[in-house]
Amino acid sequence: MDLSYSPEELAFQDELRRFLRDELPAEIAEKVRQGRELEKADMERWHAILNARGWLAQNWPRAFGGAEWSAVQRHIYDVEAAAAGAPRIVPFGLSMLGPVLQKFGSKAQQDHWLPRILDGSDWWCQGYSEPGAGSDLASLKTRAVRDGDHYIVNGQKTWTTLGQHANMIFCLVRTDPEVKQQEGISFLLIDMNTPGVEVRPIILLDGSPEVNEVWFTDVRVPAENLVGEENKGWTYAKYLLTHERTGLGGIGASQAALAAVKRVARAETHNGKPLMQNPHFAARVAQVEIDMRAMATSNLRIVSQAAAGGAPGLEASMLKVKGSVIRQEINDLARRAVGPYAMPFASEAVEGANDLIPDPLGAGPVAAQYFNNRKLSIFGGSNEIQRGIIAKVTLGGGA
Amino acid sequence: MNFVLTEERKMLQDTLRRYLRDKYTTSVRNDILNSEMGMSADIWAELAELGVLGALFTEDQGGYGGDGFDIAVVFKELGRAGVVEPVLDSALMGGRLLAAAGKADMVEDVIAGTLQLAVAHGEPGGRYDLDYVLTQADGDALTGRKAVVMNAESANHLIVSARNGDGIAFYLVARDAPGVDIQGYPLLAGGRAAEVTLDKAPGIPLGLGLAEYERINALALVAISAEALGAMESATALTKDYLMTRKQFGRPIGTFQALAHRMSDVLIELEQVRSAVINAAGNLDASDRDLHLSATKNLIGRAGRLVAEEAIQMHGGIAMTQEYELAHIAKRIIMADHRFGDTDYHLERFIALSAA
Question: Are the beta carbons of B73 and B92 closer than 8 angstroms?
């Protein structure tokens, strides 16, 4: 047991800080700090910068062009990148599809799709949830019927994050409606430019256009875009969800957000004193920080275990629940910190609409973020689903 | 003890509820939210016609109510329907300040729905502190800056606080007077506000000081608390319906004990909120009025967060969408915490008043 970084890890941290200082475009970092919406080009630009350094696919094996970082290295990146205001790496290709293709895809699929994820040729989105299949994902109805060397796909996906930017979508589709739900699902890669694919934006309660509905009407998909075996998609989906969840502790983002709360609360005054010196407010901040410190260590313990080949399912669920609750608490503190100035509506959706929005403390749209981040306990398997997993593994029913 | 509404108040409640249910649908409100003025002149005129604005004033003032429970009845209904028209700021606060100043003609216009007001008291850096006023009155010329002034753009007149030689005093300022600059913007939970800059703007002294303002602020606390209660009632009703109709894993999700128990907790807190609003409305004339008000507002802030967050969580993704009624209702509940002092502000005030 040793809580300090090794000399190599410290050197890595230095290298990373230099890289972020020299390479992270200032205008992008500024947008991230102010909580403004990133354009597609901003995200692509940051991906390209990371890729040029070989640091884009941090958890991929070297054989596939990844950085193959250790758990500690990933943690260091998470914290340093968030502190520097780096955009989050868009996870759909890199953290979700990539690992599935590496484990279950054919050699041809790996050779074709993985390099395109790295160089930004493709922007992937995730076609999982449906209007009737949220927490009960296995009840999904989008149908794929084999027709010669194609599948014909009909149905609807929803909550498709950043689908408006995507040219490719990986989907769970029903290929056998006769068997037990989980046994009739396949994992299919669909080109969104195929006739019959339609993307409709959903505006969220904070005004942000970040999720979409994707409709499929007689969409012809080449059979070679089936990943792994037909009707084995559920296995691949579960594997992917584990990968998706491992990053969801969100420790770096939470640390950066709490630092922002403190900065604002030092500038804000109440009864002539900085709000940060107010005992009630200071106690709330301290409480979150105490929880966050423990979670940072949990995060490291769990990710190290995963790297060593342990099964992270149960622990990943714990991390997802705790991480989302902590982040949401920080969002709550951020809105409290600015007092009445939480009320103005800085809309991400309307270009130029924010010029008149007063923000005397430079806090950004904290109330909008408070509402937007309610999603953290809903998406990627809601916290209720995670608690169900924890209970099932612990209390019975097996894993 | 009697917890039954009087016949008149029951009628007011039923009339207003029916009107808003028929007229103030989600899509009508969304159109209002997206409109330039952020409010509907038609709705305003109809609220006046229904007597809703008059119910906020005593008979002496030309109304037919004006008591804490009249205010609570009106605002609970406005909260249930997520109404964004500035009844609280323009009619209740503005109107009652003018009534306190003896401006009977103007109060008549407020009740008739033909006069819009804005109260410009809070300032940048002042947070929720009532005595934080840096704006200066040099004679009757006002200079300073006012923060997040509700309804400033639609108001015919602003009621502005400023320091003169004696302390904090209130002035009537025409919105289009020279030296008045108004920078408006939309609010997250609907309606519009503005940053108001005064540069030697001409004001008419109203003869009101901080003590009179605190009395009106107390009415506003009852109103915002009742509004939050109404919004919580709607959030709870929507959630209950959703739990009974949304099916996952082959059964209504409300049959899962994890959700059923949390719904029960929400209902328990909702009862607490109902009682807290009664405590506030019924103690407006008590010697320990502010203790009751702070207790209520603190509880509303805590319960409101629970109700809004649990309602969203138990719905799942659908509650995150702009189009769905709950999204707006949840925003009303949470943003009520940012008016007239938040949960922490009133906890502190409760502690201070309890110790006194």
Answer: no
